């Protein structure tokens, strides 16, 4: 149980276009999901917290108008990279709360999306 | 979240135990220790977590010192597929986001 599916796994887009990444919790409901970005040979950096039915909370330095987050249901959050540029090329990873309130509380991560902007 | 310190890299022989240390000297009383690993180009995978007692599951064992200022993740019989970056995170039980440090790159060698 507690599977998070992320799609697509890889995407190549042209500079100036927008790309949407989906994060789904397959067997549990997630009121909160998190979006991370990871550059080569670096650790994961939290970009934003996605809240179901409300606005996302962005970390300092992350442009909310560039990285649009929508969390319209308890099982789906999307991250749209708008007007992508080569410097946005990175590995994007989502995660979701699992079994909130249970003894086995942890976070499940998606498999990541490799975005390459050319 | 409390800051954690891990060695940047470690090697381990295949079949031997891998012991990965983590220092978290500023951990608060309500913070748990979580371990994740990330195999190249994949999302992090949950391994184990604990509060103050030692824990064991099918993947690993977690040893937390009595003062809770450090912990050790033990992979009892490392295989080549255990080569990954291992992250130690401390976080309150009902906390939101996780803060990832630089982790330890474990290389299991034949």
Q: What do you see in this structure?
A:
The complex is a heterodimer of chains A (118) and B (110). Chain A has 118 residues and is an all-beta fold. Chain A has strands at 4-7, 10-13, 19-25, 32-38, 45-51, 57-58, 67-73, 76-81, 90-98, 106-109, 113-117. In chain A, strand 7 (67-73) and strand 8 (76-81) form a beta hairpin. Chain A is globular. In chain B, the strands form 2 sheets. Chain B has a 5-stranded mixed beta sheet with strand order 1-9-8-3-4, with no helix packed on it. Chain B has a 4-stranded antiparallel beta sheet with strand order 2-7-6-5, with no helix packed on it. The model of chain B has no long low-confidence stretch (mean pLDDT 93). Chain B has no helices and 9 strands. Chain B has 110 residues and is mainly beta. At the A-B interface, strand 4, strand 5, strand 9 and strand 10 of A face strand 3 and strand 4 of B.
